[in-house]
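Worked example 3 (structure in, sequence out).
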């Protein structure tokens, strides 16, 4: 059985989804599974695609006047790619709208071939913001990267089997040292304030007294706004803007704690990446993701997204040295269930169970 991952949206080439696709497909291939990835078009930064079994439906990402045209044209292109496959296959869609395209492809495939293939969803964001919830029922089952998404899908598609699989992370990393003379806060991610809510973090940091700095690794549409906000809050001198990097951890020579103050996540891959390096984490207890990873006082702390006081208090306690930071070994041990082989085996078990039934 061939496993095909399909993405109808144009990828940036710099996100966690790309990392997950790459890790999952290469590991499945090493385990003897036949896999390929079909993208609508090359990524904005296509370097991650090298050495992966990736094909594109379009040379450039097309602009469609309606969702209906996007579905019709893209599903036709996808049918051209799969109708000549000799082996049985299943299609895994990485978004709700991709499910719509794959479902249309399956209808045409049945008319052409007289048989059908399975459709599986592998969604990477919380469903509370999903515009195309009606398309979720096109999946035969769901692979869920967090228990939050699992719970949402059990409500939205109660008749469909769902499996919690998480996202894979290479946890065999060297510890990142801690500087005990100065608190080094760390943020890694897109500068998209609607989701990542750096304004919340900046507001709390403006109330923190003591010797601290915040290293920000990432870029995005809200950088100018955030720089202006930092000036307004008089914390600019404490911030280090590293910009985007393909390998962000190469820019982290020491860190006290990683902070992820998001309003929503799908999984929170950067949390596991930090813990795998012995760095504890403070994260918002948003609907999906961080609560699967953070264990209070074991590898970090959670705060409610609307509770700025809790975040401010935690930051002050850390800077003043009045709270015991989790030790690096405890941080690493806490994320063992996200190790690559363990995670990929969960994916294969879930996929095989639906295909066998």
């Amino acid at each position: 059985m061939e496993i095909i991952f399909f993405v109808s949206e144009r990828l940036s080439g710099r996100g966690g989804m790309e990392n997950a696709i790459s890790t999952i497909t290469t590991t499945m291939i090493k385990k003897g599974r036949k896999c390929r990835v079909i993208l609508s078009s090359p990524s904005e930064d296509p370097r991650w695609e090298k050495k992966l079994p990736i094909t594109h439906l379009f040379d450039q990402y097309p602009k469609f006047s309606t969702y209906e045209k996007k579905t019709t044209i893209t599903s036709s292109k996808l049918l051209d790619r799969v109708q000549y496959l000799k082996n049985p296959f299943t299609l895994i869609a990485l978004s709700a709208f991709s499910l719509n395209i794959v479902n249309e492809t399956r209808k045409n495939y049945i008319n052409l071939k007289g048989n059908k293939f399975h459709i599986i969803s592998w969604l990477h964001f919380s469903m509370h913001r999903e515009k195309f919830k009606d398309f979720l029922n096109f999946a035969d089952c769901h692979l869920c990267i967090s228990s939050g998404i699992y719970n949402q899908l059990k409500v939205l598609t109660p008749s469909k089997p769902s499996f919690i699989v998480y996202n894979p992370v290479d946890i065999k990393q060297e510890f990142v040292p801690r500087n005990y003379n100065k608190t080094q806060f760390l943020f890694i991610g897109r500068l998209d304030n609607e989701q990542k809510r750096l304004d919340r973090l900046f507001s709390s940091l403006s109330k923190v007294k003591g010797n601290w700095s915040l290293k920000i690794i990432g870029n995005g549409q809200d950088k100018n706004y955030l720089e202006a906000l930092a000036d307004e809050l008089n914390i600019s001198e404490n911030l280090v803007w590293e910009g985007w990097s393909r390998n962000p951890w190469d820019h982290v020579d020491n860190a006290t704690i990683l902070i992820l103050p998001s309003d929503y996540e799908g999984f929170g891959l950067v949390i596991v990446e930090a813990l795998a390096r012995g760095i504890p984490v403070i994260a918002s207890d948003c609907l999906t993701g961080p609560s699967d990873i953070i264990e209070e006082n074991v590898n970090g702390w959670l705060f409610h997204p609307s509770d700025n006081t809790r975040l401010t208090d935690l930051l002050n306690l850390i800077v003043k040295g009045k709270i015991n930071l989790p030790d690096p070994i405890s941080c690493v041990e806490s994320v063992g269930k996200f190790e690559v082989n363990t995670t990929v085996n969960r994916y294969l078990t879930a996929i095989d169970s639906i295909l066998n039934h």
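Notes: The mean pLDDT is 96. The longest helix spans residues 96-113.
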